[in-house]
Amino acid sequence: MKAVVAVIGQDRKGIIAKVSTLLYERNVNIIDISQTIMEDMFVMTAMVDTKECNVEFDVLRHELADLGSEIGVQITIQRKTIFESMHRI
Amino acid sequence: MINNSEIFETLNMINSEHLDVRTITMGISLLDCASEDYKKATVKVYDKITKYAENLVKTGCDIEKEFGIPIINKRISVTPISHVAASCGHYVDFARALDRAAETTGVNFIGGYSALVAKGYTASDRLFVESIPEALSETKRMCSSVNVASTKAGINMDAVRQMGQVIKRASELDDMACAKLVVFANAVEDNPFMAGAFHGTGEGECVINVGVSGPGVVKCALEKVKGEPFGVVADTIKKTAFKITRMGQMVAVEASKRLGVPFGIVDLSLAPTPAVGDSVAYILEEMGLEQCGTHGTTAALALLNDAVKKGGVMASSYVGGLSGAFIPVSEDAGMIEAARSGCLTLEKLEAMTCVCSVGLDMIAVPGDTTAETISGIIADEAAIGMVNSKTTAVRIIPAKGKTVGDTVEFGGLLGSGPVMALNNKSCADFIARGGRIPAPLQSLKN
């Protein structure tokens, strides 16, 4: 199942490292990743495949959110379909 | 690949602009539960609902978590109980069965304690309508509606008279009862929104209908086109409505697939909540009105309502329900402020209902309002619906012991609102006539 991980917050060292480590530990494959600074905010999105994820989607969602609070950014994961349905005909 | 700005646009709509799916409503036919023995029938009703809707709430929550889109309500609508219970009576026992089924399945409301009497009453319809106050006061999650008029049949003024008495009586029995009771003209059979949802007899066995929302998203989109002409305003609303509806369509299809139940319709509605920033009134004010209710409000609302439909229609494979902007006074922060300041009056609200969905909704009136006056309000609103071939409704709450200017608290999504002033001249002799107002001409439309 393809999902989008979105990270937004104040820039600091190690955000991508920490997020990708967690995804690696959960056996989630990163298909595509992009990072930029928009209006002074760190913005990162990653397209991931959770097909072989070793925990339930909801557990992963909580772990990412917890990691976000730990390092002071907001991290969400949502199935890709929601973005496609809204922005693509 | 979806780009970053699209991803964050969606996230921003959800996190800051209150975008949500307002309701997933499962419609269930109860026609096969009818029996001459009310005990048998009520058991069948309870069993069927709890079996069909067993996974409704869980599925809604799963979709919410996986897609990251809040789904505020999971609800059930059923065949009008006046049909199901016609041969056995004991209507309030059916109400209790519905309420228990709602509790077991975990939905917050179940709709369908309804009667359709636009042209006339059957013997059991009349008794059923009489039972509504008791049924509402003995249940927590059950909603009731009565259709008293239609463009094809006219207005059943006997039912209008009776509904004035029913609303009055319900308000005396229970403060919350009238918030769960709607009087319709041209009621639709696939409405997913409470309190007026019921599963019409033209519907299938079981169906999933979805109501979308997002006044906050429309308001924020309009903030970016300040001062632009109305063509730009309409286009902006259409584009936003399209995006909102696409999301509703996706949720509807997903819920339908997971539950193994056919997808019915998406209801293209702008349904406000009392949360600041989730208000239809604020959209109208964003268009340039100092406060909702002033001159220009009806025109602004007409544009909004039409643009929402135009934008939404292409985004969904099946559109239905009420589809339009709702203006429930107590559930909309901007409407509450406007009513409190005196800018928004009942007369203006009535005019607004000519161009939007649905009617005089969640309006608190003084506790000493007579049944005849309530019937008069219903008759006026039904006339608007009948003549304009649209659904109109009245959900009015006589606030016991309160008078104009006092505040009534309903709690939760139902919000709070000021008691509004009514015209103090009597319409009792008009209502006492009874009978039927004939259906209107469909040509010579001036």
Q: Would you write up a description of this structure?
A:
- The complex is a heterodimer of chains A (89) and B (446).
- In chain A, a hairpin with a 2-residue loop joins strand 2 and strand 3.
- Helices cover 37% and strands 38% of the residues of chain A.
- With 89 residues, chain A is α+β, with helices and mostly antiparallel strands.
- Chain A has helices at 15-25, 57-71, 81-87, and strands at 2-9, 29-38, 41-49, 73-79.
- In chain A, helix 1 (15-25) packs antiparallel against helix 2.
- The radius of gyration of chain A is 13 Å and the shape is globular.
- Chain A has one domain (2-87): ACT domain (Alpha-Beta Plaits), CATH 3.30.70.260.
- Chain A has a four-stranded antiparallel β-sheet, sandwiched between helices.
- With 446 residues, chain B is α/β, with parallel strands linked by helices.
- Chain B has two domains: 25-185, Anaerobic Ribonucleotide-triphosphate Reductase Large Chain (Alpha-Beta Barrel); 210-430, Alpha-Beta Barrel (Anaerobic Ribonucleotide-triphosphate Reductase Large Chain).
- In chain B, helix 8 packs across helix 15 and helix 10 crosses helix 12 (297-313).
- The longest helix of chain B is centred in the middle third of the chain and has 30 residues, at 230-259.
- Chain B is globular and about 60 Å long.
- The mean pLDDT of chain B is 94.
- Chain A binds chain B through residues 4, 6, 8, 32, 34, 36, 38, 43, 45, 47, 57-58, 61, 76-88, and chain B through 1-2, 4, 6-11, 65-69, 243, 246-247, 249-250, 254.
